[in-house]
Amino acid sequence: MNRIILITGEKNSGKTTFLKYFIDHVAIKKELILGGFIAEGIFRSGRKTGFDLIGLSHYDKKLLCTNIPRKGWIRMGKFYFDPDGFRFGENQLANLPDGVNWMIIDEYGPLELSGKGWRKTVDRLLEKNGLTLIITVRKEILTEVIENFEGHELHVYDIKNSSNASITRELSKLLPS
Question: How far, CA to CA in Å, does 43 sit from each of 26, 40, 97, 153?
Fold first, then answer.
């Protein structure tokens, strides 16, 4: 069994901002060895035009998606996803450094629910026992995501109903002493 922490909220509600807060205020101070990635928004003239993936093992970066149509890329909503960006994300999840304490996956969405994106890699991760995963998920698909993770220890935090500090205090209780 694994521990899965779901950070949920609407689009642009601060889920990724919370992950950065957690990394700065807990992971670095407690010397957690992190795996996974965050998806950082790319903005042009104040509008979100895409996302970069930031790998947490080495803090390398790769374009995940853009709102500019690209041939051969996967369209989901207004964004076009780079297959190389998915490979980068899968690599961040599959090739973990020794001693990884916690995994961060930003985010698990409609593509994963349909069996695409990093779904297969996450499923393989969950075949191992003793992992703690922090996963962001949009509120609109939370029930379906929870069903996907049946059989694991689940903790759900709504970013709208709690401050970054209060969620971080709760997660700190789950850290090894």
Answer: 27, 10, 31, 36
| Span 48-60, pLDDT tens digits | 999 999 999 888 9
Domains and CATH numbers, the chain: 3-40+52-58+85-172 (3.40.50.300)
For residue 141, the Cα-to-chain-centroid distance in whole angstroms is 15
**Which residue, 33, 53, 34, is CA-closest to 117?**
53
Rounded distance between C-alpha atoms, residue 1 and residue 45, angstroms: 45
pTM over 0.90: yes
> CA dihedral defined by 66, 35, 139, 85, rounded to 10 degrees?
20
**Percentages helix, strand, coil for the chain, rounded to the nearest 5?**
30, 30, 35
Q: Which structure tokens are listed for 33?
A: 């060895």
